[in-house]
Design goal:
This protein has 10 helices and 7 strands. It is globular, with a radius of gyration of 18 Å.
Length: about 280
């Protein structure tokens, strides 16, 4: 059971890296990619826990980027956690996330919801600040029924508390992942509503994989992206996108998996990236 998409408290997940690996092992997962948003901070703890549980850890990251004007999420698999450029980029984004959160909190206060940065930090702990943390504050205060409602009413793109973010170009996201020795896979293309021409552009820019087997994709959408993956020679991957029961109810590690032969293909592509000079 190979799950190539999961999150911890290092970004917007509910569980620590050690807790996540324990849950994954209990679910029968044999290989797990920890792909926190814009950070590799949880990979050290994850590696130690993976060894303890006999699970193969695939060190990863999930970068938010843009192709044309569409926001997409690009998973980096087999990245080197100690790659200085990747760590520096994550640190810069951490500052940007802090500033963005301050503006979103202010927007909510103007709407009559007395939220503070202290409330958000209490939920986030040491993690990179993200909208799910603010959404959980709204749920805990009783202003929203669940995280989905918080996004639908306030925090989603174009909603009343939305604040635009730094826009990393998709091509540069792929190049950064490649420089870190990893492979670049487009996450949940269906929920991102990625069109063929956008996928074609990313494939030309060096995209390695397509998460057509994401837990949220329905059969017809899955078939559509499986065809695109074949057309553009992209490795098809699967992942649960597990964040924790409180953040993504109904999901658990291993809910969607990557076929072993596809995992082997992705690993081979990562090896070819690592073998390149520089």
């Amino acid at each position: 059971m190979i799950d190539l998409h999961s999150h911890t408290t290092a970004s917007d997940g509910q569980h620590s890296p050690a807790e996540l690996l324990s849950l994954a092992a209990s679910a029968g997962v044999t290989a797990l990619a920890v792909t926190d948003h814009d950070t590799v901070a949880g990979l050290g703890e994850a590696a130690e826990a993976a060894r303890a549980h006999g699970v193969e850890l695939v060190p990863g990251i999930e970068l938010s980027a843009f192709v044309l004007k569409r926001e997409v999420h690009i998973l980096g698999h087999f990245v080197r956690p100690d790659f200085e450029e990747l760590a520096s980029f994550a640190a810069r984004l951490g500052v940007e996330r802090e500033q963005r959160m301050e503006r979103m909190v202010e927007q909510l206060r103007r709407l009559g919801f007395p939220v503070t940065m202290g409330d958000v930090r209490a939920v986030a702990g040491s993690a990179q600040l993200g909208r799910p943390h603010l959404a959980r504050v709204l749920v805990e205060r009783g202003w929203c029924l669940d995280v989905k409602e918080a996004f639908d009413r306030f925090l989603g793109a174009g909603r009343s508390a939305w604040v635009d973010r730094y826009k990393l170009d998709g091509r540069e996201a792929i190049r950064l992942i490649h420089r870190a020795g990893g492979t670049a896979t487009l996450a949940h293309p269906g929920s991102s509503k990625v069109e063929r021409h956008e996928l074609r552009m990313l494939a030309k820019d060096g995209l390695d994989g397509l998460e057509a087997l994401h837990a949220d994709e329905n059969p017809s959408v899955r078939e559509k992206y499986l065809k695109f993956a074949k057309e553009f020679d992209l490795v098809t991957t699967g992942g649960s996108d597990f964040h924790g029961e409180q953040v993504t109810p109904g999901k658990r590690p291993g809910d969607s998996t990557t076929p072993p032969e596809n995992f082997a293909r992705l690993r081979a592509r990562a090896a070819s990236q690592s073998a390149r000079p520089g």
